[in-house]
Amino acid sequence: MIEAEWWDYDDEAEFAEAVAGDVAFIIESALDARGQALVAFPGGSTPAPVFALLAKKPLKWKNVTIIPGDDRLVPVTDKLSNVAMIGKAFLPLGARVLPIAPAETKDYRMAGKAADARLADLHWPPDLVWLGVGDDGHTASIFPGPDLDEALNAPKARRAIGVMPDPLPADAPVPRVTLTRAAILSARAIMIALKGKEKRAVLEKAIKDGPLSSVPVGRVLADAEQPIDIHWCA
Ligand code: 6PG
């Protein structure tokens, strides 16, 4: 049974403040405990206001490594690049922002192998995997499609794979690399931040259905052993 705790907010400003505060707390706790922090952040539109607030927190950023939990196979100059969005916010602070997707490639499976090799060098597990959720119930870039089974059932040692969502999401119709379910569930903390009543309904049903969920996020979280904080505003 997924142990999920919902934190609801009256408006986006309160939501962004709370998410930034929680992420900062997790980073600070990791720095206190281990002198370093490794966190995975989502792409999409939700994180931007949170990044702006988080970047103002007085943390020892030079000891913080940030990876995208998934990224699109586009150049870092492309507006669809998740690592570019993260880098813009946190590289000026001295944080180590690492791309997981190799430079442009059309071979998304090979890109997944390259991403996995890059993650093999990091001090694992992540202190936090922060996830978003799509209207179709995807999370990170674990989408319905030909690669869903591999993303869900990759062995523990496999931290990233390449995926070709089917159907391709309209807002970013490109192949991607993503953390696997195993990599997400290895995190010391998992947090979800989402907006809107529709996505809330999708996530609530996914959590209730668990391993029988018809959407990826339910299948990903079904085996979570850690409690999951879910931040939501309408
Ligand atoms: C991506 C994201 C993806 C995102 C959801 C929610 O690269 O697309 O990692 O999983 O978190 O699609 O996106 P919004 O924040 O725009 O709702």
Account of the 3D structure:
This protein is α/β, with parallel strands linked by helices. The chain has one domain (4-233): Rossmann fold (3-Layer(aba) Sandwich). It has helices at residues 12-34, 47-54, 82-90, 108-120, 148-153, 181-185, 197-209, 216-221; strands spanning 4-9, 37-41, 64-68, 70-72, 96-97, 128-131, 160-163, 176-179, 190-195, 228-233. It has a seven-stranded parallel β-sheet, sandwiched between helices. It has a three-stranded antiparallel β-sheet with strand order 4-8-7. Strand 2, helix 2 (47-54) and strand 3 (64-68) form a beta-alpha-beta unit. Helix 1 crosses helix 2. The mean pLDDT is 97. The structure holds 6-phosphogluconic acid. Residues 42-46, 70, 82, 132-134, 138-141, 172 line the site of 6-phosphogluconic acid (6PG).
- Topology pattern, helix = H, strand = E: EHEHEEHEHEHEEHEHHE
Bulk shape: globular
CATH fold category name: Rossmann fold
Q: How many independent structural domains?
A: 1
Strands of the biggest beta sheet: in what spatial order? 1-10-9-6-2-3-5
On the 0 to 100 scale, the average pLDDT is 97
Q: What small molecules does the structure contain?
A: 6-phosphogluconic acid
CA-CA gap between termini: 26 Å
Estimated structural class: alpha/beta
Helix content: 25-40%
Largest sheet: 7 strands, parallel
Give the total of beta strands.
Answer: 10
Which blocks of ≥5 consecutive residues have pLDDT under 50? none
- The oligomerization state is single chain
